[in-house]
Amino acid sequence: DTEVTQTPKHLVMGMTNKKSLKCEQHMGHRAMYWYKQKAKKPPELMFVYSYEKLSINESVPSRFSPECPNSSLLNLHLHALQPEDSALYLCASSQDHGNYGYTFGSGTRLTVV
Amino acid sequence: GEDVEQSLFLSVREGDSSVINCTYTDSSSTYLYWYKQEPGAGLQLLTYIFSNMDMKQDQRLTVLLNKKDKHLSLRIADTQTGDSAIYFCAERDPSGGYNKLIFGAGTRLAVHP
Q1: Chain A CB contacts of B44 below 8 Å
Q2: Residue A14 burial (10 A CB sphere; 0-12, 13-18, 19+)
Q3: pLDDT under 50 in chain A at which residues?
Q4: Closest CA to A71 of A26, A4, A102, A7
């Protein structure tokens, strides 16, 4: 298995909702990432997990809450989002050092209404 | 500081070669990457090059690295319509003890008959 699987592919949520994005990989990668990508822009790093521990939080608002239950799974819990949070959310994984690049999932297209 | 710059758009005729250029500012970068993103999809790692290499070839793809000028290029031979996508150049953030990629803005490649 050489893929990163993200669910759901599309999500529409209201500003008062709570939802979660899920990411799964079975490549034995020990680093996992959340990126946010707005239209016509490059991906922006949000969080990095290394060996299931949060190693980087790029000053992301607390309405985004990451979780890494085990080495294969990564979640992003969403609460009280704003319309400007609408974007493509990409999960990625890599071997621990990341030198040989990341494997990205196909993303969750999030729309906040 | 780190910055990665790319031209935003390139149009080529099917069958011709495409050359996508990228400049980076941090001379201590060790790994540089090219990613491809098709519409509505995640990022696909095309290739990477280590900073002690000048060139890397993989089938239709050729990466050239000029460390003196901090210039990276991706050449696609015999460009096909399936190559139409956004191409991101990225460097590994050399300042961190963690994994972080710095992406360029992306070059949109349009292939026409």
Answers
A1: 104
A2: exposed
A3: none
A4: A26
